[in-house]
Amino acid sequence: VDDAIVIGENIFREQERGVPPLRAAVQGATRLCVPVTFAVFTTIAAFSPMLFVPGSMGKLMQSIPTVAITVLVFSLIESLFILPAHLSHMKKNANPGSVMRRLERIQSATTQALERFIHGPLDRVLRFTTRRYSLVLIGSVALIGLSLALVRGGLVQFIFIPEIEGEVVTARVEMPLGTPAQRTQQIVELLEEKGHETATELQSGLPESHPPLVTNTLTLVGDQPSLALDPMAADQHKIVQSHLGEVSFELVNAEIRKLPALEFEEAWREKVGEIPGVTSLVFQAALLSLGSSIRAELSAPTTQELVQATTRFREELTNIAGTSNIDDDQDRGKREVQLELLPESRPLGLTFEDMALQVRNAFFGAEALRIQRGRDDVRVMVRLPKDERNTPADLQRLRIRTPAGAEIPLSEVAEARFGTGPSAIHRRDRRRVVTVTADVNEDQNTLDAVIGRIESEIIPAIQTDIPGFRVSFEGEQRQQADSVNALARGFVIALFVMYALLAIPFRSYVQPFIILSVIPFGFVGALIGHIVMGLNLSMLSLFGIVALSGIVINDSLVLIHYINGRRREGVPMEEAIWEGGKARFRPILLTSVTTFLGVLPLILERSTQAQFLIPMAVSLGVGVLFATILLMMLVPALMMLHHRLDVLIRRRHADQPA
User: Fold this and answer.
1) Which residue of 46, 319, 322, 453 could cross-link 550, Cys pair, CB 3.0 to 4.6 Å?
2) How open is the CA angle 424-427-431, to the nearest 5 degrees?
């Protein structure tokens, strides 16, 4: 509605001067056609970077800039062609009813109060900013520095995505590979029993009128459907597996529930404690998950060192406050026979590959012949008779052929022992890796703080004992870096595009900089809004700040356009700034207030579905209010500074001899 407000207010101003409605509509629309058009274009440019954010966050938020850009295009058409046509036929009702008379009195009183403010406090502020513009600029820079210090100092934390609790609390259990379904069922039943005990204890602490905390319970063995909500794990466990299980408790609606779902999760986790024989046990109450907060890929020179490093890394993570659900993908597989060459085999020229191939051929078989029978391909495999490949003793008696042609028992060149191998081996860049995952409770610690401690303390300590140990962060940390970098690159490009668009109507290289200088104060306003609302900055907050930049640019553009018009009529710069600030304050105020009121219901909404968008709404709503206040002081100060510098440069050129 920004462009419609500006056009409508200008038409109303013409009508107040006594211009006939039709002529007032034409003059009001044509006079602001250029600034409004370019204001919409700059707003579209501000929303454009959101279209190119990669990863899960980009997919979630892509609809917002798409809808916003579409609405902006149609609103421009409506404000330039349809709105003036409607306003040209508006006539004052000669005989208004009682309701309309009451509304007109309220409107008249509001208009008079606004006019008193414009010609009183606002006039004094504008005169101060033009005469003491250096103080205004110094104070503005100091305010930006203070805001950055609050973020850099950790007083206002930055998280990738706000943790929004849902109405379902889930526990996912994973047993060793090959565990019978009956054993997994016992663990699932234990989790369900502890969950009901937790619900009973928490229910006793709620008012008697509170509805039952738990409405439904779901237990599963062989599958973990909640992983479908995790984009980092959605491709896992496609088939039923007996070692997997899941228990879910659906809580009463969040709008009437007096207990946070996260509190139920923590109480349930404490009630369950450690369960012997369980490979992994993860509790989750978040509505939306982009994967584990921490997803670290560990690698080491040898398999044994990798196992040691993984164990130590997990132990160190448990000592960091706020970390939970620590797990890794180093799943133990089934029991197997592991072979290792003895030093005595080296003089014989026997390699591990030669020995392994001969053992495989003896027990599994080697292809001796391939026969084509019609459309079928029949392979003939040759291996030891069944009674010679049934026991470990048969393996020890197996004769291995050396490169020289001699045959010796396997027991003389290799050691065979029972062990458990991994169910899967993961590699990256030909290095074997183990992925360690963990969640971070943002109420106790932040992801950046945990990552900082890992990089500064844990990794160097392990590298001291295990040279060649490496860690790379994936998961939320990688998504955060990719999304922030993509948004930053897109925003820089958008700034260049907005500068070029602003330079066209103003025919100036300096005035677009003055307009763009208001953007940082949108961030200041968004930061104040987050502090007041008790929110952390997040990726969604940055989306709101990027969108906010287009709105504050529009207000500055309209103000400077009016000042330039008065300057072309020969009005001195100071008076042009005073008149421009007072003439354009009403549309600027209306634009900011309507934007704030538009997102206010979302800011105040307490439903679970709305929590995801609240940080963006706070950035947009509170940011535009604060930026408007500073805009009315900063733009006049910068315009005055530009004018003084221009006059000084002209005088120096005039004083130089021809």
Assistant:
1) 46
2) 130
Nearest alpha-carbon partner for 230 in 170, 310, 280, 187: 170
Q: Classify residue 604: in a domain, yes or no.
A: yes
Which residues, 6+ apart, have CB-to-CB distance to 470 below 8 Å?
298, 299, 300, 431
Q: Do 350 and 267 share a structural domain?
A: no
Q: Which parts of 120-256 fold into alpha helices (H)?
A: 123-131, 133-152, 181-204
CB contact at 8 A, 431 and 302? no
| Eight-state DSSP code of residue 75 | H
Element (H, E) at 247: strand 244-251
CATH number at residue 347: 3.30.2090.10
pLDDT in tens, 112-143: 888 899 988 999 999 999 989 899 999 988 99
Enter the tokens of residue 90.
């508006």
Residue 448 resides in a domain: no
521 vs 141: CA distance, rounded Å? 10
Distance CA 111, CA 104 (A): 10
Per the model's pLDDT, the better-predicted residue between 206 and 656 turns out to be 206
Single-letter amino acid, residue 536: N
Contact criterion met (CB below 8 Å) for 85 and 522 = no
| CA angle, residues 78, 63, 164, in degrees to nearest 5 | 125
Positive/negative CA dihedral, 649, 650, 651, 654: positive
**Domain stop point among 226, 252, 287:** 287
Overall number of domains in the chain: 4
**519, two tokens:** 């953007």
CA 173, 178, 181, 183 dihedral sign is: negative
Q: Let me know whether 418 and 512 are in one domain.
A: no
Question: What is this structure's pTM?
Answer: 0.66
**Same domain assignment for residues 16 and 56:** yes
Give CA–CA dist 162/534, Å, rounded.
12
Instruction: Go through the chain and tell me how many residues it has.
Output: 658
Question: How many other CB atoms are there within 10 angstroms of residue 308's CB atom?
Answer: 16
Task: Read off the tokens for 296.
Answer: 């670290």
* Lowest-confidence pick of 21-35, 59-73, 468-482: 468-482
Percent of the chain with pLDDT over 70: 91
Name the residue range of residue 412's domain: 334-422
Q: Supply the angle between the helices 63-77 and 539-568 in degrees, to the nearest 10.
A: 20
Here the tokens at position 164 are: 């929004």
State the CB neighbour count (10 A cutoff) for residue 199: 21
Q: Is 18 part of a structural domain of the chain? A: yes
